[in-house]
Amino acid sequence: MKLIASNLDTFTHLLQGKRILELGSGSALCGIAAMCFNPSTVHITDLPDVLPSCKLNVELNKSLIPESCTVDIFALDWFHPPPAIINAHYDVIFATDVVYAPELYEPFVKVIDKCCCSAPASGTLILLGVCKLDTKPAFFTMLEEAGFHYNLLNSKKAAFSNLGLFEVQKNGATTILSQLQRDWYCLQ
Ligand SMILES: C[S@@+](CC[C@H](N)C(=O)[O-])C[C@H]1O[C@@H](n2cnc3c(N)ncnc32)[C@H](O)[C@@H]1O
Q: How many domains does the chain have?
């Protein structure tokens, strides 16, 4: 959230009129924040058991949803992804604190590969938050083997050094690293 709040122009350009997917939404905080930037579509997804809390949080924040934005909340289990997500041409995918166990690495990488539009320039940008205590280097090796590139977005001076925020993309899709005010995570 601090990344977004400190870089409003960049995120307006990134999200306005775009198709957004959130994976492993939990409280749906990223999806709800994305709604404020007037995207065309926000898809909030998680395991079936978690969807009631996603729906409740979206309902509580429905005043933030612009009229032109379509919000859909549905089950998306990375082990059994629904065919509808393939070639769904998402512009931005949010996923925070979702690759916390090694058995999730491979299905998660396969899912982002399926959801990802990899055409240069119009490709999908994935914004991925990880806790380095539970997301091991093996996850990043899998990302590379699947053809993804990634950049760390938060400053190395990060106050909470266990948190890594990455942009992940394929085939030279748009990146935001060069546009960011990168000291957003420092205390001073
Ligand atoms: C630690 S929570 C993070 C929630 C939220 N993204 C956040 O940052 O607060 C991890 C989320 O991943 C979801 N998750 C775990 N395994 C999953 C799977 N196989 N398919 C889809 N979601 C999954 C969980 O249900 C949970 O909501």
A: 2
